[in-house]
Design goal:
It is built from 1 helix and 25 strands. The protein has about 325 residues and is mainly β.
Length: about 325
């Protein structure tokens, strides 16, 4: 029997956790951490590999390691004892031929989807912002003074180009830290403009699974409003079960089920617990079932999103837990 991966909530972080008795635990939110319980704190500098078109930072601590790309600040890999818990699609490219990382933990800001209220990938004439925002297509800056061998801090600020698409000044910070028992990530968004701004946001999280046909997803879904995003107009139904199984192409949003906990059960790897303590509103579940080119068999997206606009006053900051 696969080991149970328990969930524990951390008020301002996302957690993946492992111990001798379990393969992994995880909790996810706007402020997040991925966890394992081994290794001593490293005082080394973050290891930056700038040899290719898409520089990356490798973090290590004991038997745990993580890889973060400056492109999109994407946490693309988290391994503990050699076990990978994040997924990359087969069409992921790191030679510069694609504008972002296809997989891992992409940050969608300042919009999730192309301005659609459900975050769907549908054509929109209301915005010029790329699908799922600007942040995942831009190179973030590594703040070396704040980074060590097990911690990196990345920052993204507005440019003349971003202001042409989204007319606001902003600062995003993304911290990834391998700690004792966890890899903690924290996302903050600051409105640096003199006026209010509004945005949508999401973590387009790709999780690795052993077999999509064998996994289940549990959470506070019973009684929630589910929209099937693959139909137009989306069909709203009241979902009457606490469990989700995937046996066909899936692109659904479960509205206002967060904050709360979602559990991904993999009979081979164990259970991955995904929790949101606040800020996030809804959960999107996506799998390109049957599409071998996208690697449907070994990944599932369980995305913490804020598709109802977040309004942020001038000089104010936003965070989700």
């Amino acid at each position: 029997r696969a080991p149970r991966q328990r969930l524990r909530e951390v008020p301002t972080s996302r957690i993946f956790t492992t111990s001798k008795s379990c393969v992994a635990r995880a909790s996810f939110a706007a402020l997040a951490s991925l966890a394992t319980r081994r290794g001593a704190r490293s005082l080394r500098r973050a290891s930056l590999d700038a040899s290719g078109p898409m520089p990356s930072v490798r973090l290590t601590r004991g038997q745990d390691e993580a890889t973060v790309y400056l492109r999109g600040a994407c946490l693309a890999s988290y391994k503990t004892s050699g076990v990978e818990w994040l997924a990359l699609r087969p069409d992921a490219k790191f030679d510069g031929s694609k504008p972002n990382v296809s997989g891992g933990l992409p940050i969608c800001f300042p919009q999730f989807g192309p301005g659609d209220p459900l975050g769907r990938d549908v054509p929109s004439v209301a915005t010029k912002i790329p699908v799922h925002g600007l942040a995942r297509n831009m190179d973030w800056k590594l703040l070396e003074a704040e980074s060590t061998g097990d911690t990196c801090v990345l920052e993204l600020t507005d440019t003349e180009e971003t202001r042409q698409l989204w007319p606001h000044e902003f600062r995003c910070r993304w911290k990834v830290e391998l700690k004792e028992g966890e890899v903690a990530t924290t996302l903050t968004v600051e409105n640096c403009s003199a006026e209010e701004c509004s945005f949508t946001c999401g973590l387009h999280s790709y999780y690795h699974v052993s077999d999509i046909d064998a996994i289940s997803i549990r959470g506070d879904f019973a009684g929630s409003t589910k929209y099937e995003r693959k139909v137009d107009p989306p069909e709203a139904i009241t979902y009457d079960a606490a469990e989700i199984r995937i046996s066909e192409f899936t692109d659904d949003i479960y509205k206002n089920v967060l904050p709360g906990s979602v559990i991904l059960n993999d009979p081979v790897k164990g259970e991955l617990d995904i929790i949101s303590g606040g800020g996030w509103q809804s959960v999107v579940v996506w799998n390109p079932y049957g599409d071998e080119g996208l690697g449907y068999k070994n990944l599932v997206c369980i995305e913490s999103v804020a598709t109802d606009a977040v309004r942020l006053a001038a000089k104010a900051s936003w965070a989700a837990t």
